[in-house]
Specification:
It is a single chain. By secondary structure, this protein is α/β, with parallel strands linked by helices. It is built from 13 helices and 7 strands. It has a 7-stranded mixed sheet, with helices on both faces. Helix 9 links the parallel strand 2 and strand 3.
C-alpha cells in the first residue's frame, strides 16, 4: 500500500504522542518532532506507511535512549487482556465455538492499540465491540480453506490483542500453526518475550519476522519467516500495519482488522472503525 497524503499528518501526530510517552523532556520531544518533519518531507522514498512508521519510531528510540518506550503500555495491555481471557473463552463456548465469533474476538483485540486509543476500559470495550458485525466477512472462504489446510501462519500485531488471537487459534484444531511477532520492540507491537507472557505458545509455534517494522518488509525478514510464509496454506494477517505492508503481495492472504484510519477504511470501501475480515486472492 503506497503512502497517501493523509498518512503524513498521522505520522506527525504519532510522533507527538510517542515523544510524550518516551520522555517528559520538552527539548528531546522537540528534537524528535524536528527529525520527524524531515522524515515526512522524504515520504516518497518509503515503500509503505509501515516502513515510514518504523523510521519515525526509531527516531523516538534514538533521542529518548529507550530501547522499548512502550514497554509498560504493552505489559499493562497484556495484563488487562489476560484478565478477560476467561470471559472470552466462556463467551465463545456459549456461541458453540463458532468460527465467526472466534474471528470477532480476535478482531476486537485489534481495538487495543495504544497508538490510536488510550485509557481503555477493556471489559466495557469488549462487551460493546463483540456485538458489532463485520462489514466484510469472508468466513465461507476461510472455512473452506481451513478444512483443507495443514499449515497456518498468523502474523500478530499489538501486544494486548495477542491474548485475543490466542482464543481464535485455540478454536482451530489439528493444524500446524505458527505465530509471527516483531523481531525487536517497535511501538506497542508484540515481540517474542511478550508473546510468551500471553500464553500463545501453548497453541502455536512462535517465530519473529526478523525485521523491526510494524509490518512485514520482505527484504529484511528472516529465512525462517519467509519459508514459513511461502509454505503456509493459510496466512492470516492482523492489524493495519501488516495490511499496509502485505496488501500488494502476490500470495493469497486473509486480513483481519479494525479500520482505525480513513485511508485504510477507504482502501476497503468501508467506514471508519468498521471490522474487516477480507480475503485477498493470489495475484
Amino acid at each position: 500500500m503506497e503512502i497517501k497524503p493523509d498518512c503524513l499528518p498521522c505520522v506527525l501526530s504519532q510522533a507527538i504522542k510517542a515523544s510524550k510517552i518516551a520522555t517528559g523532556d520538552v527539548n528531546i520531544q522537540q528534537l524528535i518532532l524536528d527529525e520527524t518533519i524531515n522524515l515526512i518531507e522524504k515520504y516518497k522514498a518509503y515503500k509503505n506507511p509501515a516502513d515510514m512508521g518504523r523510521d519515525m519510531h526509531l527516531i523516538v528510540k534514538k533521542h529518548s535512549k529507550l530501547f522499548d518506550p512502550y514497554i509498560k503500555i504493552k505489559q499493562d495491555n497484556i495484563t488487562e487482556a489476560l484478565e478477560v481471557y476467561g470471559y472470552l473463552k466462556s463467551f465463545l463456548l456459549q456461541k458453540q465455538n463458532d468460527i465467526v465469533w472466534a474471528l470477532k474476538i480476535a478482531a476486537t483485540g485489534n481495538y487495543l492499540d495504544s497508538t490510536i486509543y488510550s485509557n481503555l476500559d477493556v471489559k466495557t470495550c469488549i462487551e460493546q465491540e463483540l456485538h458489532r458485525d463485520f462489514s466484510i466477512c469472508d468466513v465461507e472462504i476461510f472455512s473452506d480453506k481451513l478444512s483443507q489446510a495443514k499449515k497456518i501462519l498468523f502474523i500478530g500485531d499489538n501486544a494486548g490483542e495477542t491474548v485475543f488471537d490466542r482464543i481464535l487459534i485455540e478454536s482451530i484444531k489439528d493444524k500446524d500453526i505458527t505465530y509471527a511477532v516483531r523481531h525487536e520492540p517497535i511501538i506497542n507491537d508484540i515481540t517474542m518475550e511478550e508473546a510468551y507472557l500471553t500464553g500463545i505458545d501453548a497453541c502455536a509455534k512462535i517465530i519473529t519476522t526478523g525485521c523491526n517494522a510494524p509490518g512485514v518488509l520482505f527484504n529484511e525478514c528472516s529465512e525462517e519467516f519467509l519459508e514459513t510464509y511461502l509454505e503456509a496454506d493459510i496466512v492470516l494477517s492482523k492489524g493495519q500495519g501488516n495490511y499496509e505492508s502485505l496488501s500488494e503481495d502476490s500470495r493469497d492472504i486473509f486480513f483481519l482488522l479494525k479500520a482505525k484510519c480513513p485511508v485504510i477504511a477507504k482502501a476497503f470501501g468501508k467506514d471508519l472503525n468498521d471490522y474487516i475480515f477480507k480475503y485477498k486472492s493470489k495475484v
